[in-house]
Write a structure and sequence with these properties.
InterPro entries: AAA+_ATPase (IPR003593), ABC_AA/LPS_Transport (IPR051120), ABC_transporter-like_ATP-bd (IPR003439), BCA_ABC_TP_C (IPR032823), P-loop_NTPase (IPR027417). One of its GO terms (molecular function) is ATP binding. It comes from Streptomyces meridianus. The protein is α/β, with parallel strands linked by helices. It has 2 domains: about 180 residues, P-loop containing nucleotide triphosphate hydrolases (Rossmann fold, 3-Layer(aba) Sandwich); about 80 residues, no CATH class. The protein contains 10 helices and 10 strands. α3 packs parallel to α6. Bound molecules: adenosine-5'-triphosphate and magnesium ion (MG).
Amino acid sequence: MTTATPTPPAAEAQPAATVLSATGVTMRFGGLTAVQNVDLTVNSGEIVGLIGPNGAGKTTFFNCLTGLYTPTEGTVSYKDKVLPHKSHLVTQAGVARTFQNIRLFANMTVLENVLVGRHTRTKEGLLSALLRGPGFRRAENQSEQRAMELLEFTGLAAKRDHLARNLPYGEQRKLEIARALASDPGLLLLDEPTAGMNPQETRATQDLVFAIRDQGTAVLVIEHDMRFIFNLCDRVAVLVQGRKLVEGTPDVVQSDERVVAAYLGTPYEGDTSAETAPEDGPEDTTGTTSTKDTEGGTA
Ligand SMILES: Nc1ncnc2c1ncn2[C@@H]1O[C@H](COP(=O)(O)OP(=O)(O)OP(=O)(O)O)[C@@H](O)[C@H]1O
Ligand SMILES: [Mg+2]
């Protein structure tokens, strides 16, 4: 009989650290209030979903979080530091994002697109780059190595030399994620990452988001695909007409009558066998039709 090895005492349960904290965020465009007094936190190790009808203010909220917009009111902090209203400084601080309308450098290769995303993490300056000294070459090699790791991670390594514009749509979305990860973010914001994807690609994206979380990057994700959101997220917040209507676990949110009335349209009824989202609700829930260009700015 073998002697049982003593099990170590259970680690003290630590409260999860807050990674993102948005407080009272309001964004007005003239007379239109696109986002109204929204509070949201994301803790380390979490995947949080943001859902709501078309035009609810989800992308505008992301733009406020990532420095593309200066909110009319409210503050956004990342790891207890207030974020500046400049997108490159937000990226440098540790918050990366993808865009609802894909923004890749179409005529650059897959690898080059990821290297561009790496830029905020390289210290070598312009002079060093011009002189192409040993420091620059070392940094370049490290960047390329990291970029290739990310292409492996996202399943795009075999396409490293393809032009971004020649990738199928689903792979362009993955490349956007790889590029965002190249800045080594502590928080990744995904704006409709599965829009236009087929069911297999959507499932692969779900696994990819879990893997990103498991590697230590918290995730905030906007999606219209309810199966994707409710499978993936620890917590879900619902925006309707710029306001946060409900926030809670997927179970709580999908059975909330106000959410059903304002967004889901048909009772979700916890039908796990349903392969498709409700078709007769007020909104498209497949995530394939939200292509309005409302992201503002040119990041
Ligand atoms: N730069 C802008 N100027 C004026 N109005 C804007 C601007 N950006 C967004 N809006 C308006 O703000 C509201 C919220 O838009 P937003 O794109 O944030 O919605 P959304 O929830 O992301 O919708 P979707 O699901 O369709 O992507 C809309 O009425 C939109 O027209
Ligand atoms: Mg949007």
